[in-house]
Specification:
Number of strands: 25
Low-confidence stretches: 94-102, 529-533
Radius of gyration: 37 Å
Distance between the termini: 84 Å
Largest sheet: 6 strands, antiparallel
Strand content: 15-25%
Helix content: 25-40%
Structural class: alpha+beta
Shape: elongated
Mean pLDDT: 81
Length: 582
Amino acid sequence: MPQLRYISLDKSRAFSLPSKTIHIGRLEENDIVLRSTRIPDIAAEITCKSGKYSISALQSGNMRINGKKCKTVMLSPGDRIEIGSEIFIFDHGEDDKKVSHEPSLAESVFEKISHFTQIVGRERDLRKLLSTIIKILIETVGGNDAFIFKLDTEEKPQIFVSSNGGISEERFSDTIVQHALKQKEGVLIPNALQDPSFGNARSIADLQLTSVMCSPIKVADSVLGIIYLGAQKNAQTYTELDLNILNTFAVMAGTLINHVEFISQQQNTIRKLTEYSTYYEGIVAESKGMHDILESIVSIADSNIGILLEGETGTGKDLIAKFIHKRSSRSKKPMIVVNCSSIQKDLQESELFGHVKGSFTGAVRDHKGLFATADGGTLFLDEIGDMDITLQAKFLRTLETGKIRPVGSSYEKDVDVRIICATNKNLEEMVEQATFRKDLYYRINQFRYRLPPLRDRGEDSVHLAYFFLEKYKAEYPNKRVIDFHPESIKFIKSYSWPGNVRELASAVHKTILSSTGPLGTLDIASTSNDTQLFTLEEATRKFQKQLIMKTLKCTGGNKEQAARILGLGRSTFFRYLSTMGL
């Protein structure tokens, strides 16, 4: 008995055709019920006269036979019937063994995907792989032209591969491409010339496009490009089923592009990290601000000039100090690091200059002191703003004479030490408040570098994240993490990192430790939050900045009025603005 074979990706079903009128449509009263909302209540009818079957569309423009619009047509074995987005194949059915049926679409698509995965295993060239995808699509769903676009740095689509092997002949509708990018989902236009939204587009009329479909190439929520298929001069009418197939291959294309770009990014990161390790002693600095600072430091590193490093906590002042030491002629001699805030004020003099036995209670033996220990090398004084004001005069004299006198001694000793100081305080303000000596400030401030916070260093945050990823991967080889999750990269770029590089390193470290499974991507956003603890000084600075910003907003940006409201002098207020980068 003659029959209609219903074709879809997930199922294939045969409907027998008796010698009576058969109605096809969406209503339950039809003999063949189609569930699609785009199908009319009664879309078509099949009649039989003298053993011959014909099909008639009951609504204009709703039916195509073998790709062409038809009102009524006599059916022949193998005819492809499209009603809306649904597809049927007509079989005469007199002798099933003699009738050659098309393989199910599911089998055909699966076979092509299987073949493509074998090609992926052999081929490494992205253009060749994506060209194979559009070749398979044209073979599977038909069409005249196919393109794969990739988005450039300005989010504009650029042809990457095309079915005609070149990019000179742009036989596509840019209007539809832009629409698909805006929608960020598959777009199907069965009849482009008559479509109310696109029929008047010049590109559609010029190309005589009769059917078009596009699917965005995405990874997570990021659009990387788009696949475009177009049919001209009634060559093909695309259906929802065809769009589903296109969407499937768009997912595969996104995976390929993401994989290739990941490898490229990893190779580029490794190259840059190697360059940093070789030239900048492991300091990652891609941003112009940091790069300029390092280049300037290279030019003065071998001198004995005093250097002051300023910046927020966690910006890497200690690494810069070590870089200066390693780039100097003193690199073979010791570098002694002292955090002035960690030494009790009554012990600072003894720690720096040493003492002799019996000079005070508990001095049971001579103590060399950090100046003498660093002789010939570098002494890095971190948090210099916390040095006791009474000790600053002795420190200044040592800088000027190159001599130290241990506590309790009557004799001076010569020392040859390069001094590098660092602070996260405003020393100019401390000078005005008489909590830091002006003469000492000018002596240590011969060259001053203010290290920018991580939030102002652009792509450095991502490069640093990969630097720490490689570092901690080496420390924990059982944590076989391969990359950051795409959302993590967005988070790393957008987060303010109030704790700067130190906070980023801690976040990557914590994320690797909490990762599970043999392979995976790091979701740093899920393990980072705004609940980190601050020192009282850091919290005070954060509050001050928020208060100043709020006051400026209330005064409409009037700085003098804001200074009066806050009870600050004009010069002091402007120093706050400069220090806070406002």
